[in-house]
Design a protein that fits this description.
2 copies of one chain form a homodimer.
Chain A (H helix, E strand, L loop, with lengths): L4 H17 L5 H7 L6 H13 L3 E2 L8 E2 L1 H11 L7 H11 L6 H16 L2 E5 L8 E8 L4 E8 L3 E8 L6 H15 L4 H14 L4 H13 L8 E4 L13 H12 L1 H8 L8 E5 L11 E10 L2 E11 L4 H35 L1
Antiparallel strand pairs in A: 1-2, 3-7, 3-10, 4-5, 5-6, 8-9, 9-10
Chain A binds a DNA duplex through helix 3.
DNA sequence: GTTAGCACTCTCAACCTTTAAGTGCTAATG
DNA sequence: CATTAGCACTTAAAGGTTGAGAGTGCTAAC
C-alpha cells in the first residue's frame, strides 16, 4: 500500500493534534477542525489503513487513534512544520545569555535552564570529555597538609582541579620541580594516550612514583564523562505533561534522571555527524526508557566543541518546538562564543592602532 | 492533664508502630501486640486523652490514630530508643569510605550516597561556604584566549576555579606580577571582609581595575552557598515511601529538591550549637514543605568544618534509624579525616627518626 | 480505674448502570 | 469505485448502591 498525499495530510493532523491535546484523535474531530470537505467515514477508512501500515494504534476500539513511534519518526522526517520562536522567546534567549558568560560551567547550566524553560521539558547537557584533547601543561600547586592541587591545561580548556596527596618530605621547591617535570613529560600527549603509556612512565619515574601514579589516575578520570560533565535542569517539568500523572512513569523517569552515568550514556550518542538527533522510545536500544524521547543537538562554535544539549521527555513531545528551540539556542551560543572571539580580535586591532 | 507513664508508653507504641507500618494505629492492635495486660477499651480512653493533648489525630472516626508533629517531637526528645546499626550497615559505611578520599567533592557525594542508601531517604549535604575563612593566597594562572584561572587558597582549603577575563595586552609576566600583587593584597583577609573593602581596593588599584573587579566578584561569590556546594543523593528513594504514592506530593517534593538554592536554605540552619537537628513539618516556617521532615547533622573533624549532611523525607520518618546512621557516618568521617591527619603525623615522626 | 458490650461512623471494594465517544461495517450514492 | 450515511457494537468513565470490615465512643457493670 502506498502513502497517498491525503494519508500524509491526515497523519500529520493526527500527530499535530495529539501533540497538542494528548487526547486520542477521532475521525470526527479531524473532519470538524481540519478536513471539512470530506466525511468522517472516509477519514475512518484512511485511519484504518494507516493503522494497518503501523503508523497508528488505538488503546481500545472506541478510543480514537494515537501515533506510533514510527509515525513520529515519519512526522519529523517529512511532515513536521517548523515554526519560528515568538519574539518573547527570542528575547528570553538573548537576555539569558547576556553577561552570564563567567565560565563554562555557568554557561552550560544556563543553557539547560533556558532550554528547559522554553520547551517545558527536562533539559540535559553533557560537555565533551577531554579524551581527544592534548595536554598543554600540568601544574601542581601546593596547598598545605601534604596536598597539592592538580591543574591541567589542555588544548581546549582548563580542567578542574583534583587533589593529590604528596609525600610529606616534598617541599614547595620539590613540588615545583616535580610539577615542571610532569608537565614536560605529558605536554603534547592526548589524554587518551595516558592510559597506554602508563606502565612506561611509572617505570621511568621511580623517584616520584606515588605522586605520578596519582596524577595518572586523575588524568585517566578525564577520559570518561564525569559527574560534573552532566548537567540537568527542569526535572520538575515532567509534571506538566499528562503522561506523568501516573506515579510509575514518574518513578521510571526519575530513576534514569538520577543517575548521571546513565544520563551521559543517553545523551552522548552518535551525534558526530548530524546536528540534531532524535531518539524515540526504545528505538536505539539504549538506556532510554521505552516511553521517552530524547532530542539532542551537538554544538560547536568558534572551533570549540561546546557539548551536547537536549531534552528528555515523553514520546508525545512537541518536536517542532523543541527542535526550533535547540536550533535557536545553538545560534545564540555561536554568536556568544564566536562574538566574544571576534570582540577580542577587534580589541587587538584597536590596541595596535593606538 | 499530665502525661502518665502509661500514656507515654502508649504514645511511644503508636509512633513506633506508625513509623514502621504507615497504617493508622488502632487500640486493638496495641493491646494485641504490645500491652496484652490491659484491654483495648482502656487504651481507647488513653488514646482519646492523648488526642485531646494534641499528640494524636485521626482522619475519620473509624480510622485509628496517627501521630501529630508534636508527637514526633516529643518522641524524639523523650521516647525514642536509638538502636545500633547492624554489622552489615557498619561494614557498608567502612567499605564506602575506603580509598575514596580523593577530594572533598567526592567525599561529600559519597557521604550523601551512603546516608541515602542506609536510611532509604533522600540525602542532602551542604558544604560550609567560605565566608569565615581567611585568604591565604590567590593565583591567576594563564590559560590562553585572554582567560586566566583564579585559584583561591584559604585557611581551610582550596576553592574551585573561576575564570577571569584578562585584558589582551597582559602577558604572562604581567599576569604573574598581578597575581602576586593581588595575593599580597588579600592575604590574611577573611572572605567576608572583601565586600566591605571593595571600594577602596578598586580605587587603589587603577591599573588593573578590570581584572581586580572580576577577582572581587569571584571572591564575593564564595560568601554565599553556591550551587556546587549543595549535593543530593537518592532523590528516587521517596518512591519507597507510601506517602509519595500521590503524585501531588511527589511534585511538591521534587520541586523543592530541584532548586539547590531552596535546598541550601533548608539544610543550612541554626545548626551551630547542636549536633543533630530535626525539623518536622512546617515547624521552622522555612521552605520546608509542610509534609516533610529534615534531619541534619553538622560535622567537623580534625578542626575542619566538613559541612552539614542530612536527610529529607516524609514526616513519618524512621527517626531512630536516621539519627543512628547520621551519628555513625559522623564517627566514620571523624576517623577518616582525623585518622588521615594522625597518619601524617606518624609519617613525620618516622621520617625524623630516619 | 478498668472493662465488656454494643451502636455508630466511615472507608473501601465490588458491582451495576448509564452515558458518551468512537469505531467498523454495510448498503446506498454520484 | 471512492465516498458517504446510518446504525450496531465496544469500551471507558462516572455515578450510585451495597455489604463487609475496622475502629471508635459511650454506657453500664465490675
Amino acid at each position: 500500500m502506498k502513502m497517498s498525499d491525503r494519508k500524509k495530510k491526515i497523519l500529520q493532523i493526527v500527530v499535530d493534534e495529539y501533540i497538542n491535546t494528548a487526547v486520542p484523535v477521532s475521525s470526527k474531530s479531524i473532519t470538524e477542525k481540519h478536513l471539512t470537505d470530506i466525511s468522517s467515514a472516509t477519514v475512518r477508512n484512511e485511519l484504518a489503513s494507516l493503522e494497518e501500515l503501523g503508523y497508528l494504534t488505538q488503546f481500545h476500539t472506541s478510543g480514537g487513534r494515537v501515533p506510533s513511534p514510527q509515525a513520529y519518526r515519519f512526522y519529523i522526517e517529512e511532515l513536521m512544520q517548523k515554526g519560528n520562536l515568538s519574539d518573547k522567546d527570542l528575547d528570553y534567549i538573548e537576555q539569558a545569555f547576556k553577561d552570564k558568560s563567567r565560565d563554562v560551567e555557568h554557561l552550560i547550566k544556563n543553557v539547560t535552564a533556558v532550554i528547559s524553560e522554553l520547551t517545558d521539558y527536562t533539559s540535559v547537557a553533557v560537555t565533551p570529555h577531554a579524551d581527544a584533547e592534548t595536554i598543554r601543561s600540568l601544574s601542581l600547586l601546593p596547598c598545605g597538609d601534604g596536598i597539592a592541587l592538580l591543574v591541567i591545561m589542555t588544548s581546549e580548556r582548563i580542567l578542574r582541579d583534583s587533589f593529590i596527596d604528596m609525600p610529606e618530605d616534598m617541599g614547595e621547591d620539590d613540588l615545583e620541580k616535580a610539577s615542571k617535570m610532569i608537565s614536560e613529560l605529558f605536554a603534547g600527549k592526548a589524554l587518551s594516550e595516558v592510559r597506554e603509556t602508563e606502565e612506561q612512565i611509572l617505570a621511568d619515574f621511580g623517584q616520584y612514583r606515588e605522586v605520578m601514579s596519582e596524577v595518572i589516575e586523575a588524568l585517566k578520570s578525564y577520559t570518561r564523562p564525569r559527574e560534573e560533565d552532566v548537567v540537568l535542569s527542569g526535572a520538575e517539568k515532567i509534571f506538566n505533561h499528562p503522561e506523568y500523572e501516573d506515579i510509575g512513569n514518574v518513578k521510571n523517569f526519575l530513576t534514569v534522571i538520577a543517575s548521571k552515568d546513565k544520563l551521559a550514556d543517553i545523551i552522548e550518542g552518535e551525534n558526530d555527524e548530524i546536528q540534531i538527533n532524535v531518539k524515540i522510545g526504545s528505538s536505539g536500544d539504549k538506556d532510554v526508557p521505552d516511553d521517552c524521547s530524547v532530542v539532542t543537538a551537538t554544538y560547536s562554535a568558534g572551533g570549540k566543541n561546546l557539548g551536547t544539549y537536549g531534552v528528555i521527555g515523553p514520546i508525545r513531545m512537541d518536536y517542532p518546538k523543541v527542535i526550533t528551540v535547540l536550533e535557536n539556542v545553538g545560534k545564540a551560543l555561536e554568536e556568544l562564543v564566536g562574538g566574544r572571539i571576534k570582540d577580542k580580535k577587534d580589541d587587538d586591532n584597536e590596541q595596535k592602532r593606538r
